[in-house]
């Protein structure tokens, strides 16, 4: 199918493949990425909305749909209904040399890893890329505003579709086009911004903005000094650097604030205590 007539004129003729068949997904990935050496893909995910707050017992639903797009074709994979993950999908997502671009992409990459085990390398946030390309915050911080201000593409994002049930099989035509357009606009923005950088308007490389998400980023790490919960080892290190914790110079024991007078008077400088130690708890 093609993107609907009620979508932006610039997207007319973009072919959309919607499937939950791993064989059909493999064919799309082979024909549109591997065989023609595609080096960048628009990336996005969708999931069923959570209407009950977490503090009231609500639970975030798993990733339901994964979208990948070139400038001429888009894959809308109903991943929650895929029985076996396509081998090409695993390889392409894990290949850092094939860039995946999207707005606010880091949380999506972490969620995909947590929900499916798929690790996405080579991810680039379009908001960061816009800054590197010479655009300012006035051009927008979201996909819709960037599309309008940078490309002149007006996106319609109806709430009835955005907040619809993305787990229902099959998706409606409106859902498919909504999902496809998000990924397609992402790759169009990337192509435009890449040209801006190549023209010498900004010396920074897009490779400098790669987002690295590791399996450790989906665990909660607790600071052993104050008990603060941090998302991943990186956030723990950031917390340790900014929290103002103090360390006894004799034994290495950590304190939330200053080393206490009682400890200084009694410290013998024996067993050291690691300031980097932490308790890990997997987040499901």
From TrEMBL:
Entries under Pfam families matching the protein: DNA_pol_A_exo1 (PF01612)
PROSITE patterns to which the protein is assigned, alphabetical: ZINC_FINGER_C2H2_1
GO process terms (BP): nucleobase-containing compound metabolic process
InterPro entries given in the database record: 3'-5'_exonuclease_dom, 3-5_Exonuclease_domain, RNaseH-like_sf, RNaseH_sf, Znf_C2H2_type
Entries under CDD domains matching the protein: WRN_exo
Sorted UniProt keywords: Exonuclease, Hydrolase, Nuclease
Gene Ontology terms for molecular function: 3'-5' exonuclease activity; nucleic acid binding
Keyword DNA damage part of the UniProt annotation: no
Record carries keyword Nuclease: yes
SUPFAM superfamilies on file: Ribonuclease H-like
Superkingdom assignment: Eukaryota
PANTHER family on file: 3-5 EXONUCLEASE (PTHR13620)
Name this polypeptide is given: Werner Syndrome-like exonuclease
């Amino acid at each position: 199918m093609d993107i609907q007539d009620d979508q932006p004129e610039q997207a007319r003729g973009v072919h959309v493949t919607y499937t939950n068949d791993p064989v059909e997904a493999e064919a799309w990935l082979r024909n549109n990425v591997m065989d023609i050496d595609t080096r960048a893909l628009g990336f996005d995910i969708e999931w069923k909305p959570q209407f009950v707050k977490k503090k009231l017992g609500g639970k975030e639903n798993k990733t339901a749909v994964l979208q990948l797009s070139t400038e001429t074709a888009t894959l809308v994979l109903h991943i929650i209904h895929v029985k076996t993950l396509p081998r090409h999908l695993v390889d392409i997502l894990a290949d850092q040399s094939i860039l995946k671009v999207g707005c606010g992409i880091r949380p999506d990459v972490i969620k995909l890893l947590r929900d499916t085990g798929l690790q996405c390398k080579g991810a680039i946030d379009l908001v960061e890329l816009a800054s590197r390309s010479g655009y300012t915050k006035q051009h927008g911080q979201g996909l819709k505003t960037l599309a309008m201000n940078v490309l002149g593409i007006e996106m319609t994002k109806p709430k009835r579709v955005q907040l619809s049930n993305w787990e229902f099989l099959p998706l409606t035509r409106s859902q498919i086009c909504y999902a496809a357009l998000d990924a397609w606009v992402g790759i169009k923005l990337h192509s435009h911004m890449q040209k801006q950088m190549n023209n010498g308007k900004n010396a920074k490389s897009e490779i400098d903005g790669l987002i690295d998400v590791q399996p450790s980023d989906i665990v909660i790490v607790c600071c052993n000094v104050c008990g603060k919960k941090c998302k991943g080892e990186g956030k723990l290190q950031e917390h340790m650097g900014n929290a103002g914790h103090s360390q006894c110079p004799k034994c290495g024991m950590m304190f939330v604030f200053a080393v206490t007078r009682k400890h200084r008077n009694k410290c013998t400088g024996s067993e050291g205590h690691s300031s980097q130690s932490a308790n890990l708890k997997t987040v499901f």
